Amino acid sequence: MAIKLGHNLLKVMTHIKCRGKFYPRTDNAVIRTAVPDDKVPWNIEWPEYNPVTYTAPHLLGTGDQLPSWADPEDMAGVCPKWNSPDGNVNRKSHIGDYEVHNNKPRNPCGRTGVQGRGCLGRWGPNHAADPIVTRWKTEKDESGSSKMVTHPKTSMPILQFVAIKRKDCGEWAIPGGMVDPGEDSTSTLLREFLEEALNIEETSVAEERHSIVNQVSRFFRDIAIRQLIHSGYVDDPRNTDNAWMETMAVNFHQPSEIADSCLPSLNAGSDAAEAVWVDICSSNSLYASHSDFLKAVTMLRGAHW
Ligand code: BGC
Questions:
Q1: Ligand 1, from 17, 234, 247: best to mutate by most atoms within 8 Å of Cβ?
Q2: What pLDDT, on a 0 to 100 scale, did the predictor assign at position 216?
Q3: Would you tell me how many other CB atoms lie within 10 Å of the CB of residue 67?
Q4: Could you give the CA distance from residue 31 to residue 13 in angstroms, rounded to a whole number?
Q5: Beta bridge partners of 139
Q6: Is residue 266 assigned to a domain?
Q7: Is the CB of 200 under 6 A from ligand 1?
Q8: In a designed cystine with 163, which of 36, 154, 237, 278 is the match (CB 3.0 to 4.6 A)?
Q9: Residue 70 covered by a domain
């Protein structure tokens, strides 16, 4: 599926979420060195900077004990191909070449106050993909035909997106996820949507399964208006000085001339506890950078924010 790769619609500012006091998922046991805004860039001298090193215990195993999505702690014997595809693993960043010091990649957006991988599997970029599926909010008028609903304050039409409630943190989010080893980001967009918003893994009747996969594949490939919203670094709380999240977020928008929904009814599965259509507005509080992605979509489509 060729996604129209326009220019990136989102500018990433200095990272903030990965400079909070505590490293996430550690019961506040891992404390980041406080990095002031002016000391974030690596080219600013800071000789005393020596933050704690933390890599989650489940990432320190070897052989069968190491999850398939994770690198070994010691990369010396593996001869990784930094800044390029490396077998099943994409070690290339969306935003250009990163530096590598002592076999450890350096976060291209600067210091974070913790070294190691934290709870991320890969040294360097950890790739995810986020499908932002949208449609206009409509209602029936007296004659029974559909019309777009506008917001009373801005008089702008309201967009709706497919949101999921994440099981891990309880936050609402776009139904995205990590790119599996050997997978390309475009396949991840479809797979994650099928798993989290349509519970494809637990749809046991083969015919129903095929019909859902076909319908969504067709929507993603042939029907939706597609636009790349972001491909690059994400200011994610899990980022460290040596490991960080990157994502490719793509908007799949249902054309307004199609009145009925092109997609099957939503049904949460996998890492999602709920899946629903949600009206997009600035007060939605969402996981990681997802609000920024949605804001960019509303600007692109001329919708209420
Ligand atoms: C999530 C994505 C998110 C990315 C970066 C992944 O774990 O599944 O939705 O964009 O992290 O925060």
A1: 247
A2: 96
A3: 11
A4: 23
A5: 147
A6: yes
A7: no
A8: 278
A9: no
Q: What is the DSSP letter of 20?
A: S
What's the structural domain count of the chain?
1
CATH number of the CATH domain containing 227: 3.90.79.10
Q: How far apart are CA 126 and CA 128, in angstroms?
A: 7
Total-model pTM: 0.92
Ligand 1 contact via 262 beta carbon (within 6 Å): no
Q: Does residue 130 have its Cβ closer than 6 Å to ligand 1?
A: yes
- Residue 95 falls inside a structural domain: no
Identify the residue whose C-alpha is closest to ligand 1 atom 1: 177
Phi-psi region of 270 (alpha: psi -120 to 50; beta: other; left: phi over 0): left
Q: Is residue 119 in contact with ligand 1, taking CB distance under 6 Å?
A: no
- Whether 284 is in a domain gets the answer yes
- Residue 235's domain comprises 127-301
Task: Tell me the pLDDT tens digit for each residue of 213-239.
Answer: 999 999 999 999 999 999 999 999 999
What's the pLDDT tens digit per position in 51-91?
999 999 999 988 888 998 999 999 988 899 999 999 999 99
Atom of ligand 1 nearest to the CA of 166: 8
- Closest residue by CA, ligand 1 atom 9: 176
Cα separation, 117 vs 67, in Å, equals 14
Are 266 and 197 a contacting pair, CB within 8 Å? yes
d(CA 122, CA 69): 8
